[in-house]
């Protein structure tokens, strides 16, 4: 069951999504509250699972990870054993930023970040050596138009 959030909770979450490195004093001032109630609300939202983690957002290009591929995977295998093996292979690869199981003609879509096409091929060869897939289509992103981790509140 989802935790009930009021307007103040949503303001706090908006501030944390914009910059989680802000101090409690800064957040409190921006939302018109004081430090202790803000801390208590953040603690409750962490305990309630609304706030999963506090992380730093890194610049992929600055780290030399200039190629972003969306990988469409179709499989003819839908057994639990194959799926477990496939998921284990995905979880073991840092290049996979996102993985989604889909409804429709495509079974899975992956968002993969690598340095270049050669690095993608190394990833691809390793993946298909571990799990059998029917069809793989890789789409190279030419330009990132929008990317955010902020959820609509």
Brief summary of the model shown:
With 153 residues, the chain is α+β, with helices and mostly antiparallel strands.
Could you outline the blueprint of secondary structure elements for this entry?
Blueprint: H1 7-18, H2 24-31, H3 35-47, E1 67-74, H4 80-91, E2 96-101, E3 108-114, H5 117-130, E4 135-140
Antiparallel strand pairs: 1-3, 1-4, 2-3
Protein name: Leucine-responsive regulatory protein
Domain HTH asnC-type: 5-66
Pfam family, one: HTH_24
Q: From N to C, what is the helix and strand string?
A: HHHEHEEHE
| The CATH fourth-level homologous superfamily of the largest domain | Lrp/AsnC effector binding domain/regulation of amino acid metabolism (RAM) domain
CATH-assigned fold name of the largest domain: Alpha-Beta Plaits
Strand numbers in spatial order across the main sheet: 2-3-1-4
Structural class: alpha+beta
Strand content: 15-25%
In percent, how helical is the residue content? 25-40%
Q: What's the average pLDDT?
A: 96
Note poorly predicted spans: none
Shape: elongated
Count of DSSP helices? 5
Biggest sheet character: 4 strands, antiparallel
CATH class of the largest domain equals Alpha Beta
The strand count comes to 4
Number of domains: 2
End-to-end Cα distance, whole Å, is: 17 Å
